[in-house]
Amino acid sequence: MPTYARLPVRFVRGEAAWLWDDRGRRYLDALSGIGVCNLGHAHPRLVEALRDQAGRLWHTSNLYEIPLQERLAERICALSGMERAFFCNSGAEANEAAIKIARAYGQRNGIAFPKIVVMEGGFHGRTLGALSATGNAKARRGFGPLLQGFVQVPFGDLDAVRALSRLEGVVAVLVEPIQGEGGVRVPPEGYLRGLREICDRNGWLLMLDEVQTGIGRTGKWFAFQHEGIVPDVVALAKALGNGFPIGACLARGEAAEILGLGMHGSTFGGNPLACRVALEVLEVIASQRLLERAATLGENLLKRLQEAIPFPVRGKGLMIGVDLGRPCGHLVERALERGILINVTASTVVRLLPPLILADGEAERMAETVIDLVRNPV
User: Fold this and answer.
1) Domain 47-287 is in which class?
2) What are the sequence ranges of the domains in the chain?
3) Which pLDDT score is estimated for 19?
4) Residue 33: left if φ>0, alpha if ψ -120 to 50, beta else—which one?
5) At 44, is the pLDDT very low, low, confident or very high (cuts 50, 70, 90)?
6) Sign of the Cα pseudo-torsion (217, 214, 154, 136, in order)
7) Do residues 350 and 342 lie in contact, with contact meaning Cβ atoms separated by under 8 Å?
8) Can you spell out the DSSP letters for 180-217?
9) Longest C-alpha distance within the chain, in Å?
């Protein structure tokens, strides 16, 4: 089905931060499969883990105990401060699980029609529940009627959330720590802390969509760790499997006790193959100190771009956006012609999501190309 505007290139091989097309030309990947391949392409340790597990056991279903799933749950909960994990296959599914937790939490507390606070410009996926929570009119167009029970407020505006304290039926806030599809929009410092305080005061769940920001992208395991808070629910996917499909919904406290037997499930979620790869992803990031690398390299890149580009440049870690203030989708093909993969999101923002393993020289090449493109956009 013609759901993608594909670029005229066919990749056949990848290594680290590079991809090769079917004509032998190589490209620097500054997009990482849209924030997925944090460890680049064909990382030898991931290849070995996948090969080894593929020769042992791929799938059994969740009718049985899965030791690798249990190990991954323990590891990811220890890193996040969460208590329990539900494994699925994508970010949209992880957000669906979060939405179900919020609704069941409301029902458990006697609220017949629970409401979830979401943000203008937010993006949580393309399933009907996740789409209903999404504040992107273009993505929602043509799929009505969507689910009810979502209240939109401006992103980054704590007063707008506080004002909902008097609204009957609110049970949770669902928010991205940094809006990715919405244009790499970074909220004011203290925003997540403020949301944590508001939720605590009102008995609401704080649910964070870390599908794009999680697993090291911003220089910490999770973006919420920059503000020293712990949410009630976290949705993950993308970089958790470095390209092998896996998602997770993490929860703690009362939120971790909501879903009981038969209330939710997934045929493929958390199968041995996916969990083995995800465990190796976490181990590689930790052992190679890639969180520190992402933080330092991201800070240097941000400064380099801000000094050289006459447009707003924002981001955290290796999640960077350059806002040209006007449609600039044509820059994607111009970058492709110059051997670099970038992305334009929200129509006006050049988005950079390079792998955490990016070398200094590769980072400089990326920066020089982007600077030249945005200075000479025609």
Assistant:
1) alpha beta
2) 11-30+289-375, 47-287
3) 98
4) left
5) very high
6) positive
7) yes
8) TTTTSBPPPTTHHHHHHHHHHHHT-EEEEE-TTTTTTT
9) 62
pTM of the model: 0.97
Please, are residues 119 and 179 in contact by the beta-carbon 8 Å criterion?
A: yes
- Spatial distance between the Cα atoms of 106 and 108, rounded to a whole number of angstroms: 5
Burial class (CB in 10 A: 0-12, 13-18, 19+), 194: buried
pLDDT of 254 higher than 90 = yes
Q: Which of 12, 7, 19, 15 is nearest to 339 (CA)?
A: 19
Separation CA 97–CA 338 (nearest Å): 41
Residues labelled catalytic: 123, 209, 238
| CATH fold label, 11-30+289-375 | Aspartate Aminotransferase, domain 1 (3.90.1150)
Number of H helices, E strands in the chain: 12, 15
C-alpha torsion 232→314→213→169, nearest 10: 30
DSSP state, residue 41? B
Q: Do the domains at 11-30+289-375 and 47-287 have one common CATH topology?
A: no
Burial of 326 (0-12, 13-18, 19+ CB in 10 A): exposed
pLDDT of residue 378: 72
Nearest to 93 by CA among 273, 243, 236: 236
**DSSP 3-state assignment of 38?**
coil
Question: Residue holding tokens 């945005």?
Answer: 374
Contact assessment for residue 211 and residue 41, using Cβ atoms and an 8 Å cutoff: no
Backbone angles phi, psi at 16, to 5 degrees: 55, -120
What was the pLDDT predicted at 338? 97
What would the mean pLDDT of 330-347 be, rounded to a whole number?
97
- Nearest 5 degrees, angle CA 303-CA 307-CA 309? 115
Q: In terms of Cα–Cα distance, which of 99, 153, 105 is closest to 129?
A: 99
| Confidence bin at 2 (pLDDT 50/70/90) | very high
Would you place residue 34 in the very low, low, confident or very high pLDDT band (cuts 50, 70, 90)? very high
